[in-house]
What does this fold into?
Amino acid sequence: MKIYCRHPFNTTAQIEVFYGCSDNHEGAKDLRFVGGMPHGTPVYAMESGVVAHLKRGRIHCDTDNCPNEANNVVIQGSDKFFTEYAHITPAPFISQLSPPRFVPLRIGDRIRTGQLIGWVDNSGRTTVPHVHISRFQFLNLNPPIPMKTYDGFTCDWSIVGVDAPYVPLECKSLDSHPRWPLLP
It folds into this structure.
């Protein structure tokens, strides 16, 4: 079982899984604050990795005949699994250029655990503000077709401070408060 050592929010508020993994929600959990989540809530990476896919410019749609595509950020972790954060507007980041400036998040960018990756939006088909998080591997096809043939969804994952059955030792070493490890 994969246990993420942190949830994607900088808060001590209680987080709930209000729609979990099922046959209709493969590999995914929808997270929000107990009592609701405001639009614009910052979302942070739960693990380090590389940006594998981004969607921007998707709009809200609340009818049955709308495309179910939301803005998102997909990060491939060191375990080769992908973590998708959907219903978020991808964040720009501060470049290392001189002078520093904001540049858009791009495919191939390296992301650190705890780095801002976006803000909760209302893109795609949603009923309330939340972050849809899914975990999957790509299907091995030749040639591969990114984001059109992913498979290998797994519900065998949890998040410390949300639904993890225990706190792994590697999570305890990050910070005295495992729900929100501070960045250096």
Summary: The longest strand covers residues 131-138. The chain is about 0% helix and 35% strand. The two ends are 28 Å apart (CA to CA). Confidence is low (pLDDT under 50) at residues 176-184.
